[in-house]
Design goal:
This protein is mainly α and 203 residues long. The protein has a domain of 129 residues: Orthogonal Bundle (Regulator of G-protein Signalling 4, domain 2). The longest helix is centred in the N-terminal third of the chain and has 49 residues. 77% of the residues lie in helices and 0% in strands.
Amino acid sequence: MSCWMPGCSALGMCRGLATLPITCLERAKDLKTRLGVLLHKPDLGRRISTSSKLQLGSRCRDSSREALEWRESFDQLLKSKSGVMAFHTFLKTEFSEENLDFWLACEDFKKTRSKTKLASKANRIFEEFVQNEAPREVNIDHETREITRKNLSGATSACFNEAQAKTRTLMEKDSYPRFLKSASYQDMTKQATSRGISKRSHT
C-alpha cells in the first residue's frame, strides 16, 4: 500500500490521518455516505422500472379483456378508447382512416358551445373531409355532400349529422367486419382468452 504523498509510507499515512482536523474527517465520512447513495441508485432505478412494467402489463391485460367486448357491436368498439385506437391502426392499413377521423371530428364538433367557434370548426371540417377533392375526402354520396354544404350557412351542432351517419354505416358494414377478422384483432382476443383460461385454472 502506498501513501498519496510522495515518499510517505502507509504507516505514515495512518499517523497523518490522526493529526487531521475533525472537520476533514467528517467531510470524508460525508463523501463516503454520498458515494454509497449513488452506488445504490441503479438498484432504485431497477425497482422503478419493474413497477412501470407491472403497470404497463396491467393496462395491456385490461385492453385485452376489452377487446373481447368489441366484437359484440360497433358501438361497443367506439365507446372504448383503446378500441378506437386499434380500429384506427387497422384502417391505416386499408388507407381509409379518414372515415374514423371524420366521425371523431364530428363528435368533438357537437361539444362546441361557442357559435363563433362552431362556424369556423364547421368550415374546417367541411374543407378537410367533405367537399369535392378535399385532402381527406370521405366516401359519401353527392346528395349528402350538398345537404351538408347548405347546412354550413347556418351552422349548428347538427349540421354534419347526415354525413357522419353515412360514414358510420360505411365503417360498420364494411371496415368493422374486416377488422374483427384481422390478424391483429385475432391476436388480441387469443391473448385475452388464454389469460382467462389461465386465471380460471389457478382458482
